[in-house]
Write a structure and sequence with these properties.
By secondary structure, the chain is an alpha/beta fold. It has 16 helices and ten strands.
Length: 546
């Protein structure tokens, strides 16, 4: 865990601080003996060895502190990314649709990455800012009271000044993160719609907008750097002034004979190190401001309501799989509270293909989301029954979903299929492809399953992409298969092939399809029509038009 690495970094830094103070005490002792007490270098060999040992230990401890701090940062960022991803899965696609994709990407990349310097530099520096100055003050207090008074009075000026500067710098950092989110979202939208922008002759305008956002982000970043440079300059001024004051006081007292050389030399060695952790902390303070701004973006993601039910986590062993799903007076509301479905009562049975028809906006997709657990019912309930008619937990029902626009990554056919089952072997891939009527065209590709599909499956036709998405869903061996408009945008021949493939998948499972296409409706065993927020059963007819 990051906590252990961070604690180790702080402990190693503390050891380094102790060895540094010991090294200066021994050095002051040697110089005083050699210069004023007539000792020879040979008589101080043991002390020289101790100084070298302290130096080696101090360097080693400092190195270990840096390494453990870096590990804490990397593990912390990885943990936060995992938490973000888990929460997005828990929220489901319906809730996630309310957050811009560019903002989510920026949060996952820049936001999580900002945690690395925070744990690696800021947290250890904050600890050292307390440990080393207090240790030095304790040593100086036992050596010289006036020097202790000077350092004790000037040291707190540094964090006080940093607090005043921090308020202004935080506002600039917040603005920088907002601009970065806008820049990331605009760039992602431009990439997605580049083909459309070029067709409409608006590509240059989009590039100009991205250029403007990038320039605004650059100016804000430079503003942050200006504040950082100003802070460092002022801290250097205060620390130099304090060290000079200590030196003047000791010089006057040495001339008056009221102070000894060893004490003066030791205090002058320790005074710069007293302010060093404060300057280091100041240099890493922007990492804290960066994290605070990033946490606001993360808060928007974590604030998404966890509406999704965890369906299909484990398959039910043996013959007692899901036999049917039953909606009983089901009601669903939109995120703004408007009723979408009300008093929906219907059944979805195994070995039957159930097709939902209806006008756009009637609630077909909402009903699918309710079955999948992406939205929570506002009224009624959804029940699952096994093949013996006994009630079973919804969590034990393995489900798979093929959305209206399946996502294909830049990779091979096999890599895209394995998104549904990462451990699937070659035989399982072939079986799933055969069930989805995709094996023939995959074998006809130049490299078969190892053929690269291009960006978003650009090297394949729309019908081939839909059948691959179906094969990917079948790799999970779901008890319930849900498809949203699987033939939308396809020509008649492609739509018929996809419809026939879906029809074959109904054996041994519950298959629910929402569609506008006649080719899909004519394959149905049960035809449900969604209108005005309710569902009615329609008779199967070859001439049915949704």
């Amino acid at each position: 865990m990051a906590r252990g690495w961070l604690l180790g970094s702080v402990v190693a830094g503390g050891v380094s601080a102790v060895l540094l103070v010991c090294q200066f005490i021994l050095l002051a002792h040697v110089v005083d003996d050699l210069a004023f007490h007539g000792c020879t270098p040979e008589s101080e060999v043991r002390v020289f060895a101790l100084i070298l040992a302290c130096l080696a230990g101090q360097v080693g401890a400092r190195f270990a502190s840096d390494m453990m701090g870096t590990q804490a940062g990397l593990r912390g960022a990885s943990h936060v990314r995992g938490q973000l991803l888990a929460h997005l899965f828990a929220a489901g696609p319906v809730a996630c649709a309310g957050v811009p994709a560019g903002e989510v990407v920026t949060t996952f990349t820049e936001g999580a990455e900002a945690l690395v310097p925070y744990f690696a530099r800021y947290m250890p520096s904050a600890a050292m800012m307390v440990v080393l100055p207090l240790l030095i003050l304790g040593v100086v207090a036992g050596v010289d009271g006036w020097s202790f008074l000077v350092l004790a009075c000037t040291g707190p000026l540094v964090p006080v000044f940093m607090a005043f500067v921090g308020y202004g710098a935080q506002a600039i950092m917040d603005r920088r993160w907002r601009q970065l989110s806008l820049l990331g979202g605009s760039f992602l939208d431009a990439l997605r719609g580049m083909k459309t922008l070029r067709l409409l002759g608006r590509a240059q305008g989009s590039l100009e907008r991205i250029t403007h956002l990038a320039d605004a982000h650059r100016r804000t970043t430079l503003s942050v750097m200006k504040v950082a440079f100003l802070t460092s300059a002022v801290l250097e001024f205060f620390s130099s002034l304090s060290i000079a004051l200590v030196a003047v006081v000791f010089g006057t007292r040495l001339l008056a004979g009221t102070a000894d050389f060893r004490s003066a030399f030791l205090v002058l060695l320790l005074a710069p190190e007293y302010f060093m952790p404060l300057r280091t902390f100041s240099a890493s303070y922007h990492a804290r401001q960066n994290v605070r701004a990033a946490l606001d973006n993360m808060g928007a993601v974590f604030a998404l309501p966890a509406l999704a039910q965890h369906h299909g986590g484990q398959a039910v062993p043996g013959p007692g799989g899901a036999g049917s799903l039953s909606c009983q007076a089901l009601g669903v509301r939109s995120p703004d509270g408007l009723p979408v479905l009300h008093d929906v009562s219907c059944d979805f049975s195994r070995n039957r293909l159930t097709v939902l028809t209806g006008a756009s906006g009637a609630g077909k997709t909402t009903l699918l989301y309710a079955l999948l657990g992406f939205v929570s019912p506002s009224a009624g309930r959804l029940e699952a029954y096994d093949v013996f008619g006994q009630t079973m937990p919804l969590e034990n029902v393995r489900m798979a979903w093929v959305p209206q626009q399946p996502v294909m990554i830049f990779g091979t056919v096999a890599q895209n299929l394995r998104l549904g089952a990462p451990d699937a072997d070659a035989e399982q891939l072939r079986n799933a492809a055969a069930q989805a009527d995709a094996l023939d065209f995959i074998n006809a590709l130049p490299n078969g399953f190892d053929t690269h599909m291009g960006e978003r499956g650009s090297r394949l036709s729309g019908g081939q992409v839909r059948r691959l998405a179906l094969a990917r869903a079948l790799l999970r061996n779901p008890a319930v298969l849900v498809l949203d408009e699987p033939t939308a945008g396809l020509d008649t021949a492609s739509a018929l092939r996809v419809a026939n493939a879906i029809r074959q998948c109904a054996t041994g499972r519950i298959v629910v399809v929402a569609t506008h296409r006649q080719a899909m409706a004519t394959q149905a065993d049960v035809l449900l029509h969604v209108a005005d927020g309710t569902v009615v059963v329609r008779p199967i007819c070859k001439e049915t038009v949704a």
